[in-house]
Amino acid sequence: MSEQVISSYENGLLSRKLYQEWTNEEWSDDEQDLYTYHNNRLQTFINQFKMGEIWTNFFKKIYNYDFDTSIREPKSLPANLYTIDNYPNPFNASTRIVYQLSNTHHVTIKIYNVKGQLIEILVDNKLLQPGRHKTVWDGMDRNGLIVPSGIYIYEMQAGETRVTGKCLLVK
Description:
The chain is mainly β. It has strands at about 1-10, 15-25, 25-40, 40-50, 55-60, 80-85, 95-100, 105-115, 120-130, 130-135, 150-160, 160-170. It has no helices and twelve strands. The chain has a five-stranded antiparallel β-sheet with strand order 1-2-3-4-5, with no helix packed on it. A hairpin with a 2-residue loop joins strand 3 and strand 4.
């Protein structure tokens, strides 16, 4: 499977990133990031996934600049910024886990049940570059057996940092 990112700009500022996948002999829109600005400052960031023909918000971040402007904003991301989330949530058959790295790291992503028992390893100590990555959990354990409905914890370890999230499997 091949992927591409198409970036759009308005007035010299990034306004949209469209993520596409090559499936069934054509490019299909998969996900998009939308950006809005006020006085050349990022005001909102929205990440959306396409469900059929409808774009659905995954998350939205609103930036507030009502503070002392003598303090300068950082020009780059913090040295160790890691994010992880999943979509759809709740899910039935499978869920996509999307994560962001600010540095090159060996990454491991594991799924646990609420008792803390290891269910599956989705990414196993893989060396990944900074940027956006994704993997899919199909609701099965390490033996290929379908797990029961319930709450599951996904954990990403990147270097010494661990980031977790919850997902709900509904059968």
